[in-house]
Amino acid sequence: MKTAMFGIVVCALGFGASAGEISKRTYSRYFEWESTECYKPTAPYIYKLDQYTRWEAENYVDEVEQYISCVEAEAQNDFFDAKRKLADAIEEGRDEAIADVQNDLDSFIRDLPG
């Protein structure tokens, strides 16, 4: 039962992800999240400080700030999406377990002698 529920949760979190990605590495016990919408800026090579390289440095600082904001927003959206999917998977698993045992009970009652 726990294995089946874990499978449901992993499927709910892994498939149909529209933003960040959650994965479980083969030899790791922990899930990892990576941004799929935000692009990490590359630091410029500054060989001497002049007007142009100063602009490049300032531009890089702006890009880093934009990247951080993007990652924070994407992670927040993924968190809420995963929370909803997890809740849906748990409710579905609960409903299936109850229906299954109810069917067993109905069959048991129907098959009672007399």
Main traits of this protein?
single chain; 114 residues; mainly alpha; two-stranded antiparallel ribbon; 2 helices; 2 strands; disordered N terminus
Task: Please provide a written account of the structure.
The structure is a single chain. The chain is mainly alpha-helical. It has one domain. The protein contains two helices and two strands. It has a two-stranded antiparallel ribbon with strand order 1-2. A hairpin with a 6-residue loop joins strand 1 and strand 2. Helix 1 packs antiparallel against helix 2. The longest helix is centred in the last third of the chain and has 60 residues, at about 50-110. It is rod-shaped and about 100 Å long. Mean pLDDT is about 85; it is low at about 1-15.
What are the SSEs and their pairings?
Elements: H1 2-14, E1 21-24, E2 31-34, H2 51-110
Antiparallel strand pairs: 1-2
Helix pairs in contact: 1-2
Q: Care to give the gist of this entry?
A:
With 114 residues, the protein is mostly helical. Helix content is 64%, strand content 7%.
Nearest-integer average pLDDT: 83
Tell how many strands the DSSP assignment holds.
2
Helix content: 55-70%
Strand content: 5-15%
N to C succession of SSEs: HEEH
- Termini distance? 34 Å
Low-confidence stretches: 1-13
The description of the largest β-sheet is: 2 strands, antiparallel
Structural category: mainly alpha
Number of helices: 2
Task: Kindly report the spatial arrangement of strands forming the biggest sheet.
Answer: 1-2
> Any idea what the shape is?
rod-shaped
**From the alpha-carbon coordinates, what is the Rg to the nearest angstrom?**
25 Å
User: How many structural domains in the coordinates?
Assistant: 1
